[in-house]
Amino acid sequence: TGMWIVKPSFDTDNSPFVGIIHIDSIYHATHLVPIYGTQFISHNLKHYDSYDTFQVFYVNKFTDHHAFEIAS
To answer: Which of 5, 2, 1 lies closest to 59 in space, CA to CA?
Structure first.
């Protein structure tokens, strides 16, 4: 696909690594596409549960020409 794969990082006690970044460090918003795997997805899954349901995501560089330029 040519898209980057991202996933959250966890410490040795399974707590998530978190950090605070300055707003000036954000260059562009991105669109994350879940990597679905081989399991069926429930029809009851809501979009706001995606980050909790899926563990790995593609960074979609094809959302617009700006994202494509940045990620290519």
So the answer is: 5
Collapsed DSSP state (helix, strand, coil) of residue 6 = strand
At 4-47, the pLDDT tens digits run 899 989 999 999 888 899 999 888 788 899 998 888 988 999 98
Give the Å distances, CA to CA, from 53 to 6, 41, 46, 72: 15, 10, 10, 28
Structure tokens at 39: 């399991």
2, amino acid identity = G
What the block records as the tokens of 44 is 């009851």
pLDDT for position 6: 92
**Which pTM was predicted?**
0.73
